[in-house]
Amino acid sequence: MMNTQALAHTLWKCLGKLLVVLELCVQGNFLNTSAIPRRCPHVCICTSDLLSCAKQGLQQVPVALPPTATTLDLSHNALFQLHNRWLAALPRLQALRISHNRITDLSSQAFHNATDLRHLDMSSNYLHAVEKHYFEELVHLEELLLYNNWIVQVDEQAFLRLSSLQKVYLSWNNLTQFPFSSMQGLSHPNLTTLDLSTNNLSRIPIEEVTALPVYIRNGLYLHNNPVRCDCSLYQMFKQWQQRHLSSVQDFLEEHTCMAFDNMARSLVRFLKYNKIFENCSLSQGSPGASDVHATVLVGETLLINCNTSTYDTSATYMWISPRHEPIMHPGNGNRTLEVYHNGSLKIIAAKPWHSGVYVCMAIGKHHQLNKTHEVNVTIHYPMLDGESFSTGLTTLLGCVVSLVLVLMYLYFTPCHCFQCCKKATASSPPQECSAQSSILSTTPPAPDGPSQKISTSKHVVFLEPIKDVHNGKIRLAASEDDTKNPKLLQLKSDSESISSIFSDTPIMS
Fold it and tell me: What is the rounded distance in angstroms from the CA atom of residue 320 to the CA atom of residue 338?
């Protein structure tokens, strides 16, 4: 009886342990299942942070998306609508590509919870306009691609909150006008590309465009638009060409205008063929006349006024240097440039690297700017009186003088052996100047005998043995036979006299 009770107790004890183990296994399996992240949609390709669902014929965005994705590609599908808050499941998203779809409109919260988005590509869709609420949530957006849509108009406040914009592409649309005034001031300090090319812009507001900061105008592309030809348009683009702005230099031949209204075949490449604008004066009434040219000498001080619109006592002023350095009161770091409260800029001790275009901007109470003012500063070195001569003439004169000196050297060189030169015409023994000529010649003198042959392949300099050096001069040794020959003695005395003339050492007697 005791054994049966002990056995039953042992069995119940083992069964209890088994139940505990099973319960732990079930709980662990549940926890592991709940910890598994969302699976990748079967129509997409997922990597660590890239999610590609391109070219799948999708009509709706997949529901289950991995939250680790920073780049989402939905291009080349059949999407026609984006639901509200559909990006809430992707908190790390930075690049979104929805090009080549059928999207015609965007809801007010289509990009809600996508504040970290930097790149948005909605090109090749069916958008008809750019409304105010389309992208106002994308406060950190840097690149916006909207080319090849059916966009007819852009709201004035469509890009108002997008202060981080760097590039906007609106080419290949049906735009008839654009709110250039919304791009003035510091609302878009980083905007370097605004592509409005290949649209239906029939008129360009010259005053609004010339009031844009120079960094925006450098990347403002307006080519391939059916604008009406006039002098103000030609003068504006001609100035941009002279200042080598990229928007004109890169597409010089694509800048066209219509000589006659409603005639597509009357397009003229006005920057390449500008004969029809010969009567237009670039100095009178040219757009951007607020641009001023200032000249100063190196080392001098220059004061530039900020001639913007009506003076406002509450406004603060900022200058942009040619090196793209913002300068506000009191000045830059090394204090070579100073800014006064009235907006004037002072260049202290001008240097050559201070040359370039300076841009002045007046900032109001609400951080809005009025028209900017640009000054082109040229710094050069002073020229002496009578120094204004032609460099080409100076070079030619130097060449003529050099040629005359060469001719004088060739034809008027004096003979240092006067007796040899005087007796050259008279009949004399062939070895009178042999002592000197043997030193200067590379070929030995010809022998007397007819049977002797001259070796032209050997070049030998015959020198007499040196016996004495006196006063820095080398004396040739005279043998007993030489003392009997008065001509050789005379030759040595002449050579000594010549060497004494060209010697730097005084002659000691």
Answer: 12
Pick 123 or 374 by higher pLDDT. 123
Phi/psi at 311 (nearest 5 deg)?
-65, 130
Residue bearing tokens 């592309």? 221
**Highest-scoring range by mean pLDDT, 67-76, 274-283, 347-356:** 67-76
Tokens of 232: 């103000």
Taking residues 63-84, what's their average pLDDT? 93
- CB neighbours of residue 429 within 10 Å: 8
Amino acid at 347: I
Say if residues 142 and 166 touch (Cβ distance below 8 Å).
yes
Q: How far apart are the first and last CA of the chain?
A: 155
What pLDDT score was predicted for residue 500?
47
In degrees and rounded to multiples of 5, residue 358 shows phi and psi of -105, 135
What global pTM score does this model have? Answer: 0.58
> Side chain identity at 73, as an amino acid letter?
D
Q: How far apart are CA 340 and CA 345, in angstroms?
A: 7
Q: For 221-254, give one letter per residue: b (16+ CB within 10 A) or e.
A: bbbbbbbebebebbbbbbbbeebebebbeeeeeb
Cα separation, 94 vs 96, in Å, equals 7
How many Å apart are CA 103 and CA 100, to the nearest integer? 9
**Helix, strand or coil for residue 405?**
helix
State residue 271's pLDDT score. 85
Query: Tell me, what amino acid is at 299?
Result: G
Token pair in block for residue 391: 């460099």
- CA gyration radius, the chain: 46
Helix or strand (DSSP H, E) at 396? helix 391-411
Backbone phi, psi, residue 281, to 5°? -100, 130
**CB-neighbour burial class of residue 154 (10 A; exposed 0-12, middle 13-18, buried 19+):** buried
CB 125 within 8 A of CB 98: yes
DSSP character string of 274-286:
-GGGTT--SSSS-
Run of H or E residues at 22: helix 2-35
DSSP 355: -
Which residues 6+ apart lie within 8 Å of 429 measured at CB?
Answer: none
DSSP character for 61? -
Q: Which of 130, 147, 124 is nearest to 224 (CA)?
A: 147
**If you write DSSP's letter for every residue of 86-155 in order, what string do you get?**
TTTT-TT--EEE--SS------TTTTTT-TT--EEE--SS---EE-TTSSTT-TT--EEE--SS---EE-
